[in-house]
Write a structure and sequence with these properties.
This protein has 150 residues and is mainly alpha-helical. It is built from seven helices and no strands. Helix 1 packs antiparallel against helix 2, helix 2 packs across helix 3 and helix 2 crosses helix 4. The longest helix is centred in the C-terminal third of the chain and has 27 residues. The termini are far apart.
């Protein structure tokens, strides 16, 4: 079990990497302008992580973080416009950079076990990637048509 102080350190490091990615990426948003949005995201992440540790429900932290994020940004939540105005300065692609780096490190340390799976894992991965892409494309197409964007 990770101690809260270690979790905060990890979250802050990921937040700083995200701010740098946000700055040098396509959006080139100044880290000072995005700092409040990142702080909001880090608070939501910490609370979600803490809930996953404190509650007897065995769910991954991402479930709690997602629920908190949804509740914090719904129109009936007081302050949601303020939260959205600040978190809008954070590029989604900038948030994926540290996550993908950590995933690569995680796979790299278990490379021997990964290689034991053989060629079948490649087929499974391609099917999963294709299904995810096609499912996302269908959902996006339906939603864009329903909202009159296309």
């Amino acid at each position: 079990m990770i101690k809260p102080m270690h979790a905060i350190q990890i979250f802050v490091i990921v937040g700083l990497i995200t701010l740098v990615g946000n700055w040098v990426g396509m959006d080139q948003i100044n880290p000072i302008d995005a700092a409040m949005g990142m702080l909001i995201l880090l608070v939501l992440v910490f609370i979600g992580w803490w809930l996953s540790q404190a509650l007897p429900i065995n769910l991954p932290p991402i479930v709690f973080v997602s629920i908190l994020g949804i509740l914090a940004t719904t129109p009936w939540t007081p302050g949601s416009a303020w939260i959205l105005s600040h978190t809008g300065n954070i590029s989604f692609l900038a948030t994926t950079t540290p996550v993908l780096a950590f995933a690569g490190i995680s796979i790299g340390k278990d490379l021997d076990k990964f290689m034991e799976l053989g060629w079948r894992i490649i087929v499974v991965a391609l099917v999963v990637f294709t299904g995810t892409f096609l499912g996302s494309a269908v959902i996006a197409q339906v939603m864009l048509r329903l909202t009159g964007q296309i």
